[in-house]
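User: Study the chain.
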Amino acid sequence: MLVADQPEKIETGKDEPALRIGPQIKTMTDQAQQELLLISPYFVPGKDDTRYLTGIAGRGVVVKVLTNSLASNDEPATHVGYSRHRRALLEGGVELYELRAAAGTAQPATAKGKSSGLSLHAKAIVVDQQLVFIGSMNMDQRSKLLNTEMGIIVDCPLLAAAVKTFVDTATQPANAYHVMLIAPAGSSQGKMQWQGSDGGKSVTYDHDPDVTMQRRLEVGFLTLLPIEEML
């Protein structure tokens, strides 16, 4: 089934469900009983989508998100919108994986605010290894409210298996960081960690890996700006 935003979505400037593909995708994801896989280069869920995803995870469904890390993201502002909800997603049982810019190598281009040359670009959703959405829509507020997007929703276990294989490969420790909350002994407050591997050896970071202090300061400044709805 082809799904597409209507051009009037832009003209009205209003969040009208009848003009957007979001509600049709939600109808698909609502059916998840075992596993929900989300692939989105720019992932800015906002408070409502964060509650939605943690609600699905809360009923026993495995919810796994693959997105860009700060190092592989060519738009630092979108990472800000994502990072604001990262802890809430983790606390709600959502699994987060951030694609590495490159395995164990510095990214000078990224440090200058440009694309690393190795960024996630695919956008897809898989429900219970059967229903698949593939299209142009990132899971962010800009795609939801400002852009006109399109894609296909199909019931195809073979395609679902192919996308799942891609996710399984991309989320291996050598390819992506698994973001986790680790509670120190005697503490009920989890500490965020990024876990991966370099040369077969496990590595753990306490902050966004593979980026310069300048990039982290840039992102820190952007968190002060009310820009989430434009991301």
About this structure: DSSP finds eight helices and ten strands in the chain. The longest strand covers residues 191-198. The radius of gyration is 17 Å.
